[in-house]
Amino acid sequence: MADYDVDLFVIGGGSGGVRAARIAAEYGARVMLAEEYRLGGTCVIRGCVPKKLLVYASRFHGEFEDAAGFGWTVPHASFDWSTLIANKDKEIARLEAAYGGTLAKAGVKVVKNRGVLRDAHTVELSNGERVRAAYVLIATGGTPSYGDHIPGLEHAITSNEAFYLKEFPRRIVIQGGGYIAVEFAGIFAGLGSHVTLVYRGENILRGFDDDVRSHLRSELEARGIKVITGCKVAAIEKAGAHFSAHLAGGNHVTADQVMFATGRKPNTAKLGLKEAGVELANDGAVAVNKYSRTSTENVYAVGDVTNRINLTPVAIREGHAFADTVFGGKPTAVDHTNVATAVFSEPEVGTVGLTETQARAVLPRTDIYKATFKPLRATLSGRDTRVLMKLVVDGMSDRVVGCHVVGEGAAEMAQLAAVAVKMGASKADFDATVALHPTAAEELVTMRKKTASHVREAAE
Ligand SMILES: Cc1cc2nc3c(=O)[nH]c(=O)nc-3n(C[C@H](O)[C@H](O)[C@H](O)COP(=O)(O)OP(=O)(O)OC[C@H]3O[C@@H](n4cnc5c(N)ncnc54)[C@H](O)[C@@H]3O)c2cc1C
């Protein structure tokens, strides 16, 4: 390693890169990290954290409405977008500085530059400097992808811009059906926008359990979000200060903003991967083995750029495991099974494990336990809402292989249910757990009645 300027060069200062750099430095490695935009990456700057802050802001609307049934009179509430964005920006700047502080304390040298590979051991910075590294970690994340080109696409914003809008959009069209589209639909609707969600598939949240998808859709519609599926925005026309989103099929929707949340693509372009002999998978992501090693022996990749499970805690785990493997003498492969995930929509989705469809495809017998009910709070608030809870159980072993919740607190529930599912808890273990009353989560340990049982035919 003495022949090199540094032991490790990390390209990208997001969730995965920052964790890897810090842990490697703590193992005694000489580490340099290049970040071309802002330290903290997508999650901190324009992803999870600012998103959740906007979600909190959007939920006050419902709280004010619900308060009346509990005897409160709330005088006319008004909302100021610029105050919210300024406060959010202040918090994000604080976090960004904290990330810088953590890296400095660990002895990582941070350069605010773009870094590209010139060969497997050479990183060239945008200031022209070349650094020779024994190991290189690619942690460049992903970026919004717009899908097919359409006329007027230049008028569309993505989640990147949505966090910094100068004016609050009174009307917004959001194209997409994934979690980012659904979350922003809830944010803007809660803050007072007229939201139209347009998705080309048959229902929102592809990949989630089908009951979750249909339940959430009806909850979104009950909150005034117009959901149009089987359709897409075919063109965007600027009409004065507004936009006209022309839908395939002929209709159009007038809006102050048109947002595309149509997926993300790994940041691999113009990174010098070919020069370093780093191969890509068919989906355009960096191909890696279970230790996150690429086709080039000293080059590794973690996080969204590898398109495994694109979530912050996964990128962090992968970054940590990389440092343990290469600099800590502890080869560590990340276990990507039973990772809990949430959609911070209104109401929330929390989920871990297999969907019913996935379970049916792999298990000889699948038992389903399902309940929908009006939450206690809605009895006085009068809100027309229902909670969905569903357990997917391996009918042969009685093991709970999936847990899906739509309702208030679903994300918090999924995190804890994930411990049980990861440990291999059986339905009998859930049943043996005494309920905590009155909660919504108690339903998860009191669902005795099987709602469906599916036996997989040999030919399936
Ligand atoms: C709107 C939104 C909401 C999200 N919400 C959640 C959530 O609630 N929960 C969750 O777990 N995940 C969420 N995610 C996903 C999460 O943000 C990512 O999974 C996570 O940030 C991935 O970390 P990473 O280190 O792989 O990449 P990133 O965090 O994207 O970091 C990559 C960094 O590399 C930098 N970079 C790229 N190329 C170069 C280069 N050549 N030179 C130097 N620097 C470079 C980028 O500027 C960036 O800072 C959300 C994402 C979005 C977009």
Description:
- The chain starts with 5 loop residues before the first strand and ends in a 5-residue tail after the last strand.
- It is an alpha/beta fold and 460 residues long.
- It has twelve helices and 22 strands.
- Helix 6 links the parallel strand 8 and strand 9.
- It has three domains: 6-144 and 265-326, FAD/NAD(P)-binding domain, CATH 3.50.50; 153-262, FAD/NAD(P)-binding domain (3-Layer(bba) Sandwich); 341-455, 2-Layer Sandwich (Enolase-like, domain 1), CATH 3.30.390.30.
- It is globular and about 70 Å long.
- The strands form five sheets. Strands 1, 2, 3, 4, 5, 6 and 16 form a seven-stranded mixed sheet that branches.
What keywords describe this structure?
460 residues; alpha/beta; FAD/NAD(P)-binding domain; Enolase-like, domain 1; seven-stranded mixed sheet; 12 helices; 22 strands; binds flavin-adenine dinucleotide
